[in-house]
Description:
Structural class: alpha/beta
Largest sheet: 9 strands, mixed
Distance between the termini: 58 Å
Enzyme class: ligase
Shape: globular
Low-confidence stretches: 161-165, 442-474
Radius of gyration: 24 Å
Organism: Alkalimonas collagenimarina
Bound molecules: adenosine-5'-triphosphate, magnesium ion
Number of helices: 16
Number of strands: 11
GO molecular function, one term: alanine-tRNA ligase activity
Keywords: Aminoacyl-tRNA synthetase, ATP-binding, Coiled coil, Cytoplasm, Ligase, Metal-binding, Nucleotide-binding, Protein biosynthesis, RNA-binding, tRNA-binding, Zinc
Order of helices and strands: HEHEEHEHEEEEEHHHHHHHEHHEHHH
Subcellular location: Cytoplasm
Mean pLDDT: 90
Amino acid sequence: MTMTSSDIRRTFLDYFARQGHQIVPSASLIPGNDATLLFTNAGMVPFKDVFLGQDPRPYSRATSAQRCVRAGGKHNDLENVGYTARHHTFFEMLGNFSFGDYFKKEAIDYAWQFLTAELKLPAEKLLVTVYESDNEAYELWTQHIGVPAERVIRIGDNKGAAYASDNFWSMGDTGPCGPCTEVFYDHGAEIWGGPPGSPEEDGDRFIEIWNIVFMQFNRHADGRMEPLPKPSVDTGMGLERIAAIMQGVHSNYETDTFQALIKAAAGVTGATDLSNKSLRVIADHIRSCAFLVIDGVQPSNEGRGYVLRRIIRRAVRHGNQLGARGAFFYKLVAALVEQMGEAYPELQARQAVIEKLLRIEEEQFGKTLQRGLSMLEDALQQVTDKVLPGDLVFRLYDTYGFPVDLTNDVARERGYQVDLDGFEAEMQQQRQRAQQASQFGTDYNQQLSSKQVTDFTGYQHDTGNATVVEIIRN
Ligand code: ATP
Ligand code: MG
Ligand code: MG
Ligand code: MG
């Protein structure tokens, strides 16, 4: 019988609980211990201070299924959604952690045991990478576990921008750091892509499933690498990627959870072709939006709130492209509750709140979407060099509420690029105008333009300066 995503989550946590790990519930997407981080983007984030020895816990081994968002900041997979088989804005990271307890041998043993004995994956489909100079990990894989040497790949950290891999992890410029080892799954020769370390590694044939970090050193400001007295382990495996493998499909979007969301999205948009890329985007986006709302984020014009707003608007645009007229996105919350409500009771508890908030935001954007799209369409017809000029991108942003990544999304689908530098220059000018305007006192300007603002986009959720700037701008 195939395992559902829920089965896999439970099997993982149970397995590590049996190996003496404390099961720790998922923390919020808003990191409680790090103001510099936009969102929780890995399972280790809530344990940062534990690794640093600043947050003592009654256990030295932990396991979790941590909700993560990678849609802004250092880790941003927003542009990958709809284009790769393996990236989401929201996903769950399954992890096991050793806080100065076990190290490389046990970590590698556990990972291999879990994949090949618990999940019964065929060993010959798995490849591993190690950090180029980490002979210890290399020998553990080849000799202790017995993975053939041609499937253990050494990866360095200075291969240039064309390569995504780099097998050395660090928490920051200073502090804990160390080599990684990663497990990849070969989805078969009919899929484009090469093994890690090859020029085709960004393809989706060999998909990274598990990343294991050995926190081995403490890096000092002068670059000195001091071995940690008690090295630690941090691992992360994407639930959706392992679910795809266990369900015998290639793309995460073909798994149980996503198929249910895609069908629901087709239902509310009127789309008939279930393989349509826009349905995947919408299915992805409802998860990040709903969970961000649960964790207290509200659409706004800056910071986390603007990331949420951008994701919602992108989803709305994709729905529009599929033929949806009127609000549809909020209707998917029910399908999400059905899929994930058991693992996340707060989803069910806050269903009505999430629906209401999404609906307001959707309806608001719906007012300007059509006009913005037809302006964009005209521009696409006229542009001759396949680059959308910055002032147009700015006007779409300023007048029609099109986040620049949304415009870019449309442009990319049609084989156009966006003049980002030109857009930035326009933004800069506007900031200056806003500053000058505010020197004359805000009353007149606000009176003059607040009507336009409510007519167009009505940023009614905003409080404080963002609103004022927005009003002056218009
Ligand atoms: P990739 O190279 O495929 O982008 P990554 O190296 O950026 O993945 P890590 O930061 O090592 O990913 O995260 C640990 C694990 O979390 C990955 O091995 C993968 O299984 C999963 N993962 C990472 N990013 C995503 C994402 N955007 N969507 C779904 N799963 C992800
Ligand atoms: Mg990545
Ligand atoms: Mg990677
Ligand atoms: Mg990785």
